[in-house]
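Input record (one chain):
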Amino acid sequence: MTRTSARSGSPFETSIGFSRAVRVGSTIAVSGTAPVWPDGSVDPDPAVQAHRCWEIMLTALEELGGTVDDVIRTRQYVVDAADGDAVGAVHGEVFGDVRPASTMVVVKELLDPRWKVEMELDAVVD
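The corresponding structure, as predicted from the sequence alone:
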């Protein structure tokens, strides 16, 4: 099977040695994605952060031939349970009737203290 990858320009891709997304056959896995803008800034609003994460991930997914309709699983990590409703609402906006299997987990902290959310997804394309 052919293995292809997508990169988002994150400085961590080179230093840690990972790809934003990898496609093997019909399966695409998108790495944990943080809500960072190209200039390195992070909006403090959890809903804006969620939108930014999905924007980055769906761009990588599309680069590898997938669409939002191909997503079968999502994972959302939040550092404050109080942000769950806002982050979940954005998930609903993005996925509508796609309704992938999904998990939201409250974690103690993420790599950068500005991040309130980090996400990942898996997709299967035809």
